[in-house]
Amino acid sequence: MAAQPSTIIEAKDVDFYYPGGEDADSPALSGINLTVNQGEYVALVGPNGSGKTTFLKLLNALLIPTHGQVLVKGISTAVESTLPEVRRVCGMIFQNPDNQLVATTVEEDIAFGLENLALPPEEIRNRVFKTAALLGLEKLLSQPPHLLSGGEKQRVAIAGVLVMEPECILMDEPTAMLDPAGRRDVLNTVRELNRNRNIAVIHVTHFPEEAAGTDRVVILNEGKLAADGASAEVMTDLQFLHGLGLQGTTAVELAALLRQDSFPLPPQILYNRELVDSLCSLGQNS
Asked: Which of 3.40.1280.10, 3.80.30.20, 3.40.50.300, 3.10.310.40 would CATH assign to domain 7-231+239-245?
């Protein structure tokens, strides 16, 4: 019998209020209950202002719940003495990699977190080279990070998190500033880490195609949990998505229009290839 996956993150009745400002009486998050297991790839989706980035910061202890609890491998994020372990388990990658690049060379940047742990120089060197090789950064180690392309910078940011040997990667729209090639490069890298290393991923994104490519989609709306399910189910429910001001993938939207014109297409088409194959099958059978 297969072993049950272990829980990496658990949010229990989480409310969060930003102190001060116009919205002090309105919670940014309200009543959030969510569990993420080892090896899951979860998309976190929702309209602007729905609380996605706030929730991600709660998981990394950059913010602490006003009410309720966030547990990372059973450790409360509200306990200051355990913050280093929480942030080792859950590494965070931001939208703009320039906000994470702090050193004068790629090698020094990847090593930054390890040096703060005061590890032996030889161990740091070995882990940096191993991580750089995994992400195809070996030839860039001596380069200044500010001279790299957007996709390369984001891979360096990922390397700086990965070298800490996390069990979960938190990503806040990491491809929003990248061109299509850079987006593809970063997403392929993260998906390989998820599959090959069983690292859990929680990925905030506005791109429907990115959400569709995950195992599970969680939708926030006005600070509350609006949906939580398999990507093929959530991302094909256009009535629900449109009601929140969200879109399905191009294939989902086009398939819905074709069904209105009496094309008998299967209900859970997510990707362009699936749509093309279904249309070809209809043509052969007509």
From this structure: 3.40.50.300
